[in-house]
């Protein structure tokens, strides 16, 4: 939830850092296809997009589609 708070306040650097940690932990604990892991990937893609890191955002979005 801290990642969301940072994201909501425009502190995308901190939001990205925390969201990467959350996504990696969920991937490790729950697996790559778990809905919480996929949600984390989507959230991180949104953060990347808002930072102008479109290539990273697109990469995650393509993983979500697959």
Automatic annotation (TrEMBL):
InterPro entries: NLR-like, TPR-like_helical_dom_sf. PANTHER family: AAA+ ATPASE DOMAIN-CONTAINING PROTEIN-RELATED, ATP/GTP-BINDING PROTEIN-RELATED. This is Kinesin light chain. It comes from Crucibulum laeve.
């Amino acid at each position: 939830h801290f990642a969301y708070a940072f994201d909501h306040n425009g502190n995308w650097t901190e939001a990205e850092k925390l969201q990467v940690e959350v996504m990696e932990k969920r991937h490790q604990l729950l697996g790559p296809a778990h809905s919480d892991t996929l949600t984390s990937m989507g959230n991180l893609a949104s953060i990347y997009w808002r930072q102008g890191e479109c290539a990273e955002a697109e990469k995650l979005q393509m993983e979500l589609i697959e």
